[in-house]
């Protein structure tokens, strides 16, 4: 996995000689670092490995990034999703590649985070988003998606979400929006307004991406207009979480736009 260095610089402070000597004498007196919001999105210090192919990382109060790694058939590709606290429960956004991935995430949310998953949503029909649905179904946890996503998942032979979302609605502490076709004809984006986190899924590319990735179901002609609608609908997004690799700031939107311009020529 590519891992850009997002470690924030320690802020400069005016100190007296005595304060300097005191800090030199004991590291416990050093003031804590205060990361910038966008860089906090990928800070490594809070990452927790749950299994050989599942990990979680806190990226804001009540918001956790989950990372699941595919098997050999998909080249071990890591995929992102969210786990968002909602009162004494939580909401899972995208389910991992496999039922086993979801099983690990659900157990951690219940037994360690003490916010059991009460509902889930998937952002498009590909297997890196829908693969864990059988586990949620088995535990009676409703999985939501657009009607188009359910139809395409069924046609693809992927697990099918059973509950429907509209194109723009609130979902607990989240706001869900369909900006139009892009990576797929059905891709949703999800905003957590309290933290300024926008989960773009595969609709948004990470900062190190050199291409638009899997183009099997992409609509490069519609994608730029969809990206513009996403920006207009969520103008306060500060931290952007792509479907793969590392989160960043709004430069990820610019980078995706640049890749689209390159692809159209």
TrEMBL record:
Q: Which reaction does it catalyse?
A: a beta-lactam + H2O = a substituted beta-amino acid
Note the subunit structure. Answer: Monomer.
Q: Is Flavoprotein there in the keyword field?
A: no
Q: Which InterPro entries match?
A: Beta-lactamase_class-B_CS, BlaB//VIM/IMP-1, Metallo-B-lactamas, NDM-1-like, RibonucZ/Hydroxyglut_hydro
Question: Gene3D superfamilies per the record?
Answer: Ribonuclease Z/Hydroxyacylglutathione hydrolase-like
Q: What is this protein called?
A: beta-lactamase
Molecular functions per Gene Ontology: beta-lactamase activity; zinc ion binding
Task: Please report the organism this UniProt entry assigns to the protein.
Answer: Corallococcus exercitus
């Amino acid at each position: 996995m590519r891992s850009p260095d997002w470690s924030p610089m320690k802020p400069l402070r005016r100190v007296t000689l005595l304060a300097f000597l005191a800090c030199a004498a004991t590291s416990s007196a050093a003031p804590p670092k205060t990361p910038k919001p966008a860089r906090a999105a990928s800070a490594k210090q809070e990452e927790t490995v749950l299994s050989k192919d599942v990990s979680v990382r806190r990226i804001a109060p009540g918001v956790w990034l989950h990372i699941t790694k595919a098997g050999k058939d998909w080249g071990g590709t890591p995929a992102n999703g969210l786990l968002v606290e909602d009162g004494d429960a939580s909401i899972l956004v995208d389910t991992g590649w496999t039922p086993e991935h979801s099983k690990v995430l659900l157990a951690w949310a219940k037994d360690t985070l003490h916010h059991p998953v009460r509902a889930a949503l998937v952002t498009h029909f590909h297997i890196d988003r829908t693969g864990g649905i059988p586990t949620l179904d088995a535990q009676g946890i409703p999985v939501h998606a657009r009607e188009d996503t359910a139809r395409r998942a069924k046609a693809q032979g992927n697990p099918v979400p059973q509950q429907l979302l509209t194109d723009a609605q609130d979902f607990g502490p989240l706001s869900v929006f369909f900006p139009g076709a892009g990576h797929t004809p059905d891709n949703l984006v999800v905003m957590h307004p309290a933290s300024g986190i926008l989960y773009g899924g595969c609709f948004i590319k990470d900062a190190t991406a050199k291409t638009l990735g899997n183009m099997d179901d992409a609509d490069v002609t519609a994608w730029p207009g969809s990206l513009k609608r996403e920006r207009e609908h969520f103008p306060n997004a500060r931290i952007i979480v792509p479907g793969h690799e590392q989160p960043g700031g709004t430069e990820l939107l610019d980078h995706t736009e640049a890749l689209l311009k390159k692809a159209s020529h």
